[in-house]
Amino acid sequence: MPYQPFLSMAEETRYDIDLLCNYFGTGFETTAQRLATLQRPGLTGVPFSFIRTDRAGNISKRQSSTAFHFARSGGSCPLWVVHRAFETPNRITRQVAAMPDGHAYLWIGRFVQGTAKSWGTPRKEFAVGLGCDISEADRIVYADALNLDTSAATPIGPGCTVCPRENCPQRALPQADRPIQVSLNRTAEHSYSTF
Q1: Could you read off the pLDDT of 46-70 as tens digits, one per residue?
Q2: Per-residue pLDDT tens digits for 150-182
């Protein structure tokens, strides 16, 4: 995937990863990661963030040319499209997502598998995500026919332990350094309610 031919084809196809894979003979993960590297001065592509995560939210690859905040520990946000990608094999899933700092992004996610080893041996399974600032979305084919209004964006965070969103319906871990409110006599609306 030489820099200039790859960038030219990416711009021509509006960053259609499947077309780029077919043209360059590469896999989805490799092609998505290459798109996140197109930031050569004077010859830049769309600034992307790239991520690879497992089902538990552990991030094994990350690369960013945007202001996106990746989780450093404790897994990633359960509301993020990369987790939905596990439910939709062989299909790209799209999402407009907003971070607590007000930045909004167009994200795509896709499930990828490692090579088969032998019968009964599980394959490695990951979700790959590629995102760009919402201001760049019109350059991307995945924005077509998608509501890009940030008021309709899915509210996501940098990971449960550091996320400031108090009433998240999918909080998997309590916020760090916040006392948890526990009542044995009622069912809470949200996990890990704080004082």
Answers
A1: 999 999 988 887 888 877 776 666 6
A2: 898 999 888 777 777 777 777 777 777 777 666
Q: Tell me the residue type at 36.
A: A
pTM: 0.83
DSSP 129: E
Residue 96 has pLDDT above 90, yes or no: yes
The per-residue DSSP string of 30-72 comes to HHHHHHTT-EETTEE---EEEEEE-TT--EEEEEESSS----S
* Encoded tokens for 166: 């108090």
91 three-class SS: coil
Where does residue 19 rank: exposed (0-12), middle (13-18), buried (19+ CB within 10 A)? middle
In angstroms, the Cα distances linking 76 to 83, 121, 177 are 9, 27, 18
DSSP 105: E
Q: Are 57 and 47 in contact (CB under 8 A)?
A: no
Measured CA to CA, the distance from residue 152 to residue 39 in angstroms comes to: 30
Antiparallel, parallel or unpaired: β 93-98 and 154-155? parallel
